[in-house]
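[job 0417] fold request received: Allophanate hydrolase subunit 1
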Amino acid sequence: MKTRYSYGGDEHIYVEVDEEMSLDAFFISLSMSKAVREANIPGVTEICPANASFEVRFDPDVIAPDAMMARIKELEHKAETAEKRLSTRIVEIPVYFQDPWTHETLMRFRERHQDPSGSDLDYAARINGYDSVAAFIEAFHSQPWFVSMVGFVAGLPFLYQLVEREKQLQVPKYLSPRTDTPKQTVGYGGCFSCIYSVRGAGGYQMFGVTPMPIFDPEQEVSYLKDFMVFFKPGDIVKWKPIDRAEYDRILEEVEQGAYTPRIAEVEFDLDAFNADMTGFNAKLMEALNDA
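[job 0417] inference complete; emitting structure tokens
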């Protein structure tokens, strides 16, 4: 990995730890952005973390851009030697795969897709070498995912699969973005999954929908009363396939203020994960099952 630093106009510095996503790059980026925050550099007004990068906004009347760049670069070595460990949580997210709403939407936009003859899941299964959609869905939900970033639109999480690189699912985005995506769609683009927090345009493949709101600006949802955004970087997600009946039941509980997401507090240690991915994931899911 070679960190790249660049200016964004007069008020921003962009720091890219690596050109490709990895958990190592994520942790270095996280440690660097944390170090910038803890340094209390005069003039810094905002720090925005991303998957394997972050951006710093500053006031050039307080600190010159070249001085700001130098201060950030001084912190890189500290980040590289920081402990790659997080106190976090694993969350179960129910998903109604092959639901009628995303299916109706994707069929309206087939001319923008690589394979107009089938569904998004048909395409994803085929290009990843699976004999059936069911086998692809099993691979998608069987192992946990890591939230590496929240953003692009308010509350939208980017999720990175916690498996060996050669086992990671890869699905390109639509050739041309849709003008419509149902709220709470579970999507996929490149090596990332996501949950669309609001209805709107989108280019990720659509696999299903969750009945669990993850963004509520009115803060009326019972578990979002303290903060309107559910996810934060470092969260771990375990998808749970559900059918229409369970989807409707959870939706009703959400509307009544009675739904509580299944969550367990866990420790994520990158070195331990890299040493035994299967065993480490099993312990994460065991913690969730015990919750």
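[job 0417] notes: The two ends are 38 Å apart (CA to CA). The mean pLDDT is 95.
[job 0417] exit 0
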